[in-house]
Write a structure and sequence with these properties.
By secondary structure, this protein is α/β, with parallel strands linked by helices. It has one domain: Alkaline Phosphatase, subunit A. Helices cover 37% and strands 14% of the residues. Strands 2, 6, 7, 9, 10, 11, 12 and 13 form an eight-stranded mixed β-sheet that branches. Strands 3-5-4 form a three-stranded antiparallel β-sheet, with no helix packed on it. The protein has a two-stranded antiparallel sheet with strand order 1-8. Helix 1 crosses helix 9. The radius of gyration is 22 Å and the shape is globular.
Length: 392
């Protein structure tokens, strides 16, 4: 390895801090090339409380079932006659006023489990198989020449980017993958040509090395105009990385970031406010930087979480695992506003709000209307009330 190669790797590792940089399918890159668009997925890990995020401030039953956790006018920002946002989300009001923020209400599905592991897997795969919900349909597009990093998870977990057709490697393990095959072959006196598994590992190592070089070179050229970091904890760091990768011209149609800490069984008032403050600051900062770099209109940001939380508060000043919840779509190509039907607090199911939109109907719209794949795996749950989510 030359000195330049070592310096380049050191810079890239320092920039990304050892998080996962996966390779997505070449066909995902074609989706981005054909539409000029990208998607940033934002995982709210732990199950976000939708009722204290998008607050039904006009419904007396909300206050009755949450005598200490209900948020009043002083704790919220009204966005509609009967709906308000948690005041910690104030940084997103500019996007709301610019018609860049859509809130899709009542997202969930039949047979909702309260298991974190099972529920997040359903959201990440679309409830079918072990592949990310994006990959199967986008994989049907004709193959194109390989891009830089074609899919990047900046939180170290692949989640919805899992695919049997792609190679997904973290930077922390990349050095081992790059150097291990040859010494192993030498020690074992194994010819890679006679060992298919070893040959595949070496081939992927070379592919990853070329990809990381291309990313590092683009980032290196962008360094003189490095943007100020978004100060919002780990999600702020990830959002800054995403903005820098995009500004540097790294071809990555799908990015993923995450914020932890939404499992608020106790002391929810301050814990939830803290999480939403970091989320709002990170997304507003990302929006600002994408506007400056000219990529806001071609970027869609979408939040998701494993489920919502119960309507009634528990005895520990928190809420337990629930079902449906609202989620956010942000971007210059988004038609903002409230979408869907808010769950009826007078028609609870086992203490949970019932879902009014199957979450996969939103996936259908992202694939069909954002990436231009109308005949996708979620067409059977298509919802007319989600028409026009995106600008032409």
């Amino acid at each position: 390895m030359t000195g330049d190669e070592m310096d380049r790797r050191h810079f890239l590792s320092s920039f990304l801090g050892g998080v996962t940089v996966p390779l997505a399918l070449p066909c995902i890159a074609q989706a981005s090339t054909l539409t000029g668009r990208r998607l940033i997925l934002v995982e709210l890990s732990g199950a976000n409380d939708g009722l204290n995020t998008v607050v039904p401030i006009g419904d007396d039953r909300y206050f009755e079932m949450r005598p200490t956790l209900a948020l009043g006018p002083a704790d919220t920002i009204r966005i509609d006659r009967d709906v308000a946002l948690h005041r910690a989300l104030r940084p997103l009001i500019a996007a709301w006023q610019a018609d860049d923020l859509a809130i899709v209400q009542g997202l969930g599905h039949e047979g909702q489990t309260r298991s974190h592991f099972i529920a997040i897997d359903q959201w990440q795969t679309g409830g079918q198989g072990d592949r990310g919900w994006l990959t199967e349909d986008i994989g049907r597009l004709p193959k194109v020449e390989e891009r830089d990093a074609l899919g990047i998870s900046l939180d170290g977990e692949l989640g919805p980017l899992r695919s049997t057709d792609g190679g997904w490697i973290s930077l922390t393990s990349f050095a081992q993958a790059h150097t291990a095959p040859v010494p192993f072959a030498a020690r074992s006196r194994i010819n890679a040509a006679q060992n298919p598994a070893l040959s595949i590992l070496q081939g992927r190592s070379r592919q990853l090395d070329q990809t990381l070089r291309a990313i590092a070179e683009k980032i290196d050229r962008e360094r003189p105009t490095r943007m100020e970091p978004i100060v919002a904890g780990p999600i702020g760091q990830q959002a800054t990385m995403a903005a820098r990768l995009i500004a540097a011209g790294v071809d990555a149609p799908v990015l993923k970031i995450k914020i932890d800490g939404f499992d608020t069984h106790e002391n929810q008032l301050w814990r939830h406010a803290d999480r939403l403050d970091l989320l709002g600051t990170a997304l507003a900062g990302l929006r600002h930087r994408l506007i400056l770099s000219g990529h806001w209109d071609s970027t869609l940001i979408m939040t998701y979480s494993e489920f919502g939380r119960r309507v009634a508060e528990n005895g520990s000043g928190g809420t337990d695992h629930g079902a449906a919840a609202p989620h956010f779509l942000l971007g210059g190509g988004v038609r903002g506003g409230l979408r869907g039907v808010a769950p009826d607090l007078g028609a609870l199911v086992d203490g949970d709000v019932g879902f009014t939109i199957d979450y996969r109907a939103l996936y259908d719209r992202v694939l069909a209307d954002w990436f231009g794949i109308p005949d996708n795996r979620f067409i059977s749950v298509r919802r007319p009330d989600l028409d026009g989510l995106f600008r032409a």
